[in-house]
Write a structure and sequence with these properties.
It contains five helices and 16 strands. The protein is an alpha+beta fold and 378 residues long. The protein has three domains: 124 residues, Sandwich (Immunoglobulin-like), CATH 2.60.40; 97 residues, no CATH class; 113 residues, Immunoglobulin-like.
């Protein structure tokens, strides 16, 4: 009898295990596998490493679009898409914005009924690679992630060409010093004084570069707490005092004319540099609750203007009048870190010394030619 019960119990355990595995397998099969794609326009993105320069040949800001389709190739319905764009900190030489190297540039979470999230325009301030992390969550709780890598180059005419000219100038400067003081060095006369002059010039370059200011004291002190509020819109940031190099959350809470939060509305948002007038971000967000938010890594401490335009959709319970606001803000400005200055200074010294060595070598060659010519006349 005991043996029969043991056999029955063993069979029950086996049946239970098979049922559990079946349910687990069925759940895995039932979970939709989405096809996530990222498209950019233009396909090759150019970094505007000096956004204060005019890039007429680059056209409008690059746009990005994330599309989500199911296994049948049909656009996914009612999915929540999160996109995070982060600069990859793998640059050998420093950039014009060292505080944001390797930092998050932009991230947003949006409910998309047609499975497409678009960023109308985004300024990429740094050259190098950007990791684009996409997370998709559907109504059943199924979550899927995918990462893309964008290779962003810098414009040759505006940045690379200027760097080449600057390096050439440093090399020529070292070459001239080598030509002028090369005679004394070759004759081993006044060598100490000539080397002292060279080291003195290089030291001036070193000291000057470590005290270069990217912002004036006035610019550094013009940032402040960001908080605006009226009867329909409240705009604030987290942290309340934005800081370059730290991702800032921009939050807009929007009400209709009756003071009730809008629902199923669309907000068109633009951020622009107030002084120079160039746009750094253009995006359109959808919200079911009337709260629109996104994260943006401010890369410059100059004053900015953020403009928001909110309008209802067919699904909005109230067809409220379109709402438009513009707000000023500025992030805490910083001068370049000492490490970035030292790297830049090292590069300067290397090319000046390189030019100096060439100058001394040319002076030596000229001296040999002069000696040979003098010997032939004798």
């Amino acid at each position: 009898m005991f043996a029969i019960r043991k056999i029955i119990m063993k069979q029950h355990v086996q049946i239970f295990t098979l049922c559990f595995l079946f349910l687990l397998f069925a759940g895995t099969v039932a979970a939709e596998q989405y096809n996530i794609k990222l498209a950019t326009n233009p396909e090759k993105i150019i970094a505007r490493d000096n956004p204060f320069a005019h890039y007429d040949d680059l056209g409008p800001l690059p746009s990005l679009a994330v599309s989500v389709k199911d296994s049948a190739g049909i656009s996914a319905k009612d999915v929540t898409i999160t996109i995070t764009i982060t600069h990859v900190d793998n640059l050998l030489l420093p950039t014009g914005f060292p505080w944001i190297e390797g930092k998050e540039l932009y991230s947003v979470t949006s409910d998309e009924e047609n499975g497409i999230l678009e960023i109308t325009g985004l300024l990429f301030p740094l050259r190098g690679q950007y990791a684009v992390d996409v997370n998709v969550l559907d109504s059943t709780g199924n979550q899927q992630k995918k990462q893309f890598i964008l290779d962003v180059a810098e414009p040759f005419k505006q940045s690379t060409l200027n760097a080449i000219i600057f390096i050439a100038a440093l090399t020529i400067f070292g070459f001239i010093v080598g030509i002028v003081f090369g005679k004394d060095i070759l004759l081993k006369k006044k060598a100490q004084s000539s080397l002292f002059v060279l080291l003195f010039v290089l030291s001036i370059s070193l000291v000057a570069s470590t005290f270069v200011l990217a912002h004036s004291e006035e610019e550094i002190g013009q940032s402040g707490i960001v908080h605006y509020e009226d009867s329909q819109v409240m705009f604030y940031t987290i942290p309340s005092h934005p800081d370059i190099g730290t991702p800032t959350t921009f939050i807009f809470e929007v009400n209709d004319e009756n003071g009730m939060p809008v629902n199923n509305a669309v907000a068109s948002i633009e951020i622009a540099n107030e002084e120079e007038g160039f746009v750094v971000l253009e995006t359109e967000l959808f919200s079911q609750t009337g709260t629109f938010n996104f994260n943006y890594g401010i890369f410059d401490g100059a004053p900015h203007i953020v403009t928001v335009h909110v309008k209802p959709t067919e699904k909005s319970s109230t067809q409220f009048a379109a709402i438009e606001r513009a707000y000023g803000f500025a992030a805490e400005a910083h001068n370049p870190p000492l490490s970035a200055k030292l790297i830049a200074t090292t590069v300067m010294l290397v090319f000046m010394v390189f030019g100096f060595i060439i100058g001394v070598s040319v002076r030596r060659w000229c001296k040999k030619c002069s000696d040979i010519e003098g010997g032939s006349h004798d």
